[in-house]
């Protein structure tokens, strides 16, 4: 009976983890206290005294202003998550503005804690995401892509590698919404080739089936972070 109970409990925990996202709030709001002022560290932010909460705690301004795209990637992300807008704490949502210069790219990356809904308001973008490893080793990861125009919305599933590329000769602007107050971003090239300290190049040479001198070259580059 104990084995059966543990088995059922394990299945329940695995199912709960598979569907878990940001926890549901247990109060109207929980305005975040700046990390430097927090007395303890928790998986989230400490709540401000509700009696001290003001309207400005729920306001972030400036998304009408374009981000600076004068970098090698030609794009810039302006986030509005709990770090910028304390009133988002425990509410399970956030958003971002993404600006693209002509032929600018938001390089392949993932959001480990959130699905992303991506709305184009200006320009033409080529976007896509790649599925996780298929169960059949003979199959390849599947790529889903679309060209997006103003008014189009595309969804990037949680945790999957995705990208956006401005294929037009003019600037492009999009807004992204996330199902997490702090979705996180893992930019693939930055994480693999630009970590500190660097990953052992022998590991990467074997993993990518490349000569070690190519790995050395890649690790010597400066990897821009726009997120």
TrEMBL record:
Keyword flag Metal-binding: yes
Highest rank taxon of the organism: Eukaryota
Positions contributing to Mn(2+) binding: 109, 111, 116, 162
Boundaries of every Cupin type-1 domain copy: 61-216
Claim: Transmembrane helix is one of the keywords in the record: no
InterPro entries with a match to the protein in the record: Cupin_1 (IPR006045), Germin (IPR001929), RmlC-like_jellyroll (IPR014710), RmlC_Cupin_sf (IPR011051)
Cellular location(s): Secreted, Extracellular space, Apoplast
Disulfide bonds: 30-47
Keywords: Apoplast, Disulfide bond, Manganese, Metal-binding, Secreted, Signal
Molecular function terms from GO: manganese ion binding
Pfam families hit by this protein: Cupin_1
GO cellular component, one term: apoplast
SUPFAM superfamilies per the UniProt record, alphabetical: RmlC-like cupins (SSF51182)
Family assignment from sequence similarity: Belongs to the germin family.
Protein name: Germin-like protein
Biological classification of the source: Eukaryota, Viridiplantae, Streptophyta, Embryophyta, Tracheophyta
């Amino acid at each position: 009976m104990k084995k059966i109970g543990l088995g059922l409990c394990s299945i329940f925990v695995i199912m709960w983890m598979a569907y878990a996202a940001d926890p549901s709030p247990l109060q109207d709001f929980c305005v975040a206290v700046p990390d430097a002022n927090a007395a303890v560290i928790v998986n989230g932010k400490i709540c401000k005294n509700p009696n001290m909460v003001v309207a400005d705690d729920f306001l972030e301004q400036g998304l009408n202003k374009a981000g600076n795209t004068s970098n090698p990637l030609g794009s810039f992300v302006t986030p509005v998550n709990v770090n910028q807008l304390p009133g988002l704490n425990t509410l399970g949502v956030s958003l971002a503005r993404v600006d693209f210069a002509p032929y600018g790219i938001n390089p392949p990356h993932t959001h480990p804690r959130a699905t992303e809904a991506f709305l184009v308001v200006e320009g033409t973008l080529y976007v896509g995401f790649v599925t996780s490893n298929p169960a059949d080793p003979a199959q390849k990861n599947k790529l889903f892509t679309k060209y997006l125009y103003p008014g189009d919305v595309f969804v990037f599933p949680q945790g999957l590698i995705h990208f956006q590329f401005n294929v037009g000769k003019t600037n492009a602007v999009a807004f992204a919404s996330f199902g997490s107050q702090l979705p996180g971003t893992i930019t693939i090239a930055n994480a693999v080739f630009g970590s500190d300290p660097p990953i052992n190049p022998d590991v990467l040479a074997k993993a990518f089936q490349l000569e070690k001198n190519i790995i050395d070259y890649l690790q010597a580059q400066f990897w821009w972070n726009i997120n």
